[in-house]
Write a sequence for this structure.
């Protein structure tokens, strides 16, 4: 194999895999790449009991009381997995809505096998321009 073939083989495989992948697989791969560009860890690889930064799209936002206290809970998905973001004592936060891109930081906990960040610091990410 020539030097040129060695360098182009990974590009060829990547192009072929993107051509044969499903639309949801492509969206997941794009979401993971965007999270990395934002300086975040992939949600699927976030360790518990450590501070972490995650970035992705909010799949759902629900009001779910915890211990008699209102709690706004959002599922953040980045293509590799998801992390729950929970704001205790909040019923609503402006800009936190399904479909919105968010970058969040905080201590990752384990809640019945689900990664969760309580009261995260967050940034709303502007949608990509045309």
């Amino acid at each position: 194999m020539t030097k040129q073939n060695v360098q182009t083989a990974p590009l060829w495989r990547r192009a072929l895999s993107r051509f044969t992948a499903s639309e949801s697989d492509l969206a997941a791969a794009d979401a993971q790449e965007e999270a990395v560009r934002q300086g975040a860890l992939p949600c699927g690889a976030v360790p518990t009991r450590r501070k972490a930064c995650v970035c992705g799209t909010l799949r759902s936002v629900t009001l779910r009381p915890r211990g008699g206290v209102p709690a706004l809970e959002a599922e953040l998905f980045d293509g590799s997995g998801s992390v729950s973001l929970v704001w205790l004592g909040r019923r609503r936060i402006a800009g936190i809505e399904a479909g919105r891109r968010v970058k969040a930081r905080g201590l990752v906990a384990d809640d019945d096998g689900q990664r969760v960040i309580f009261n995260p610091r967050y940034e709303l990410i502007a949608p990509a321009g045309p």
About this structure: Helices lie at 3-20, 23-37. The longest strand covers residues 51-63.
